[in-house]
Design goal:
- The protein has 102 residues and is of the alpha+beta class.
- The protein has two domains: 56 residues, no CATH class; 44 residues, no CATH class.
- It is built from four helices and four strands, in the order H-E-H-H-E-E-E-H.
- Strands 1-2 form a two-stranded antiparallel ribbon. Strands 3-4 form a two-stranded antiparallel sheet.
- Strand 3 and strand 4 form a beta hairpin.
- It is elongated and about 55 Å long.
- The model has no long low-confidence stretch (mean pLDDT 89).
Amino acid sequence: MHDENALAFQVLSDRNSFVASIYGIVFALTPADQALFIQIGNDLPKRNGDNSWLLPAPATFVIAGDGIIRDARVDADHTSRIDPDEIVAAMRAIVVDERSTR
């Protein structure tokens, strides 16, 4: 994704839901949900590259260079997304803070 879109920032790839697990936003699909996923053609373990039936909750984190989470949004409703303007504002605040501490 980073290279394909020529992004100027890092993008986290969370293989095996390691980071999402640390953040406490991972949930395991029930056997009924697993069957539904398979029925609609979504083989989650194959897609994730492991044998788990884990999904992270939809989330956006803006993390400063010092590792501090400056803005976060986690919502179980995958159709509810953070407004891009909020992300940009959080990133601008980081830049302002970094400039003021120099």
